[in-house]
Design a protein that fits this description.
Layout lengths: L2 H9 L3 E6 L4 E6 L2 E9 L4 H12 L4 E3 L1
Length: 65
């Protein structure tokens, strides 16, 4: 997704999330935060990070980058 696409999606009210597997963090962007911010961190493993990401993606206004 390009930066322009991200802006369109965020203006429509969605929150974009991204898993940072290197640092075991879940990051997000939304209409109030145009740069990546840490949503959650301190995961014990990549699989724990992925499980948490899946839970967020079940919510209507969260999409994955």
């Amino acid at each position: 997704m390009t930066q322009k696409d991200q802006l369109k999606v965020m203006r429509a009210g969605f929150t974009i999330i991204r898993a940072d597997e290197h640092n075991l963090q879940l990051k997000f962007k939304d209409r109030n935060n145009l740069h990546w911010k840490i949503l959650r961190s301190g995961f014990s493993s990549k699989s724990a990070l992925q499980r948490e990401k899946k839970e967020f993606l079940k919510m209507n206004l969260f999409i994955e980058d």
